[in-house]
Design a protein that fits this description.
The complex is a heterodimer of chains A (about 110) and B (about 110). With about 110 residues, chain A is mainly beta. Chain A has no helices and eleven strands. The termini of chain A are far apart. Classes of the chains: A mainly beta (about 110), B mainly beta (about 110). At the A-B interface, strand 4, strand 5 and strand 10 of A face strand 5, strand 9 and strand 10 of B.
Chain lengths: ~110, ~110
């Protein structure tokens, strides 16, 4: 089954404790991206990757890092999480990124206390 | 990035009533995509519009792209409780490699 898999689905952590949210897709998509969703603000793009070893900032990249060492994986790293990073996070992939539909993961609800 | 504006933010209808959400941009769009997110779920792609004046239908859903390619609409005829969720429009950025989403319209349908 074609899918984008995120882990964990839920996470509560403390301020400053590094964490990684994993994202994997099995559709051989070149393009992957991360979004955060907050009430009243919709979906905002954090980072995206056009291919292996090619990443770029989205609209809200501060406090986040990403890497794309393999085509299927695109982890989101929070080196020092803060409470304002409490949010619902979605990973997405698409075939090329150019005018093609995005497939979203199930989401990761992160709470930073 | 340049966002698209969606209105209304919320809509509450009785089952069987029609529903429309609008997506507007101050600049010309190369395309517009629509997604639906059920409560507690993730966004799911519905459709993409590319051509000026394009109209596409999916059962009770009708999608339109404006002649000037600066606005789009999603119309649902005779809503059902299964239509509940948030509907997002999204535009490609100038590079084409990113999507900017509107803030969404949350639809509530009561039986």
């Amino acid at each position: 089954e074609a899918q984008v898999t995120q882990n964990p689905r839920y996470l509560i952590t403390v301020t400053g404790k590094k964490l990684t949210v994993t994202c994997s897709q099995n559709m051989n998509h070149e393009y992957m991206s991360w979004y955060r969703q907050d009430p009243g603000l919709g979906l905002r793009q954090i980072y995206y990757s056009m291919n292996v070893e090619v990443t770029d900032k989205g609209d809200v990249p501060e406090g986040y890092k990403v890497s794309r060492k393999e085509k299927r994986n695109f982890p989101l790293i929070l080196e020092s999480p803060s409470p304002n990073q409490t949010s619902l996070y979605f990973c997405a992939s698409s075939r090329t990124g150019m005018n093609t539909e995005a497939f979203f993961g199930q989401g990761t609800r992160l709470t930073v206390v | 990035g340049q966002q698209v504006m969606q209105i209304p933010q919320y809509q509450h209808v009785q089952e069987g009533e029609d529903f429309t959400t609008y997506c507007n941009s101050s600049t010309t769009l190369s395309n517009i995509q629509w997604y639906k997110q059920r409560p507690g779920g993730h966004p799911v792609f519905l459709i993409q519009l590319v051509k000026s004046g394009e109209v596409k239908k999916q059962k009770r859903l009708t999608f339109q792209f404006g002649e000037a390619k600066k606005n789009s609409s999603l119309h649902i005829t005779a809503t059902q409780t299964t239509d509940v969720g948030t509907y997002f429009c999204a535009r490609s950025t100038n590079s084409g490699y990113a999507l900017n989403f509107g803030k969404g319209t949350s639809l509530l349908v009561t039986p």
